[in-house]
Amino acid sequence: MEMITRNFFLFLSQNQFIKNRATKWGPKLGAKQVIAGESIREAMETAAKLNEDGLVCTVDHLGEFVYNREEAIESADYCIRTLEAMDEAGVNCNLSLKLTQLGLDVDVNLCRDNMVRILETAKKFNNFVRIDMEDYTHLQPTLDLLADLRKQYDNVGTAIQAYLFRAEKDVRSLEGVNLRLIKGAYKESPTVAHQRTEDIDRNYMNIIKTHLLSGSYAAVATHDHNIIAEVKKFAEENNIPRDQFEFQMLYGFRSELQKEIAAEGYKMRVYIPFGEDWYGYFMRRLAERPQNVTFALRGFFSK
User: Entry's PANTHER family (predicted)?
Assistant: First the structure.
């Protein structure tokens, strides 16, 4: 049943017909509970409030799969304005982005040029940029571009998805890189990805431990309190300092647990999505865990 639910929402996330009509009923399906508005200003206000609670942040202007140069350049400009707004607002916040937003499917060199502009801006403000991982077809191009960028910039990292068979190999090849370690949120073929939850969980802990033991910085992105407890125990038993890792959760999910983790002295970063192109992101969140559907029901029946 869980797999059927997951596949259903992943199908919806890619359905253009429904996406085109989603803006009419999206807020009633709970999207506004997990999306921090549509503007940079709203994102900064959200980040400031979370900072007050002892939480650090990363913001993501939602959007992906851009297919022309003009849109890619416009997306890069928006990322730069967001970095400038972070500095002006004085918030403790990083930037997350997707390479398809910046023209990866249009022209790799265009995408690289856009990333260089963004990283130069981030470097000026002593900030960090996270390249979010997308579906499997974009995995190797993302890692190739990351390797190229890291020849010149050290303020950039990416994410590795535990459901992929190659995850451990990729983590080992990225020793020393700040990695966001996640389970994975796209529908992938059984030829490249684990399908069973227990296999994904096992590989997830494996790549977390592998990266930490290498002395590399790990951003452990999960809402699973059991995994969080296991990471804390593993770090303590292996004398891994708290400044070598952080926990990450999505905005709107398990907010009280976020505050508890921060109060314990761990760095707790909240991933804040914002923008008008929220549909694909929201559907993938519903697909990840059946419990997330309660957000949709709660929003639908509320006034």
Answer: PROLINE DEHYDROGENASE 1, MITOCHONDRIAL, PROLINE OXIDASE
User: Averaged over 97-113, what is the pLDDT?
Assistant: 97
Using an 8 Å Cβ cutoff, are 293 and 286 in contact?
yes
Q: How many domains does the chain have?
A: 1
27 DSSP assignment = G
Instruction: Assign 164 to helix, strand or coil.
Output: strand
Whether 277 is catalytic: no
6 assigned to some structural domain: no
- Please report which confidence band the pLDDT of residue 283 belongs to, taking 50, 70 and 90 as the band edges: low
Mark the binding-site residues for substrate, compressed into ranges: 98, 284-285
Confidence of residue 278 (pLDDT cuts 50, 70, 90): low
Known catalytic residue: 199?
A: no
Residue 16 covered by a domain:
no
Tokens for 21? 């009509």
- Residue 251 belongs to some domain of the structure: yes
Q: Can you give the residue range of the structural domain that contains 227? A: 36-277
Identify whether 27 is part of a domain: no
| From 105, 132, 170, 201, active-site residue | 132
Cα–Cα distance for residue pair 34/32, rounded to 1 Å: 5
Which residue(s) pair with 160 in the sheet? 181
- CATH for 199: 3.20.20.220
- Per-residue burial over 265-287, b if 16 or more Cβ lie within 10 Å, else e, is ebbbbbbbbbbebbbbbbbbbbb
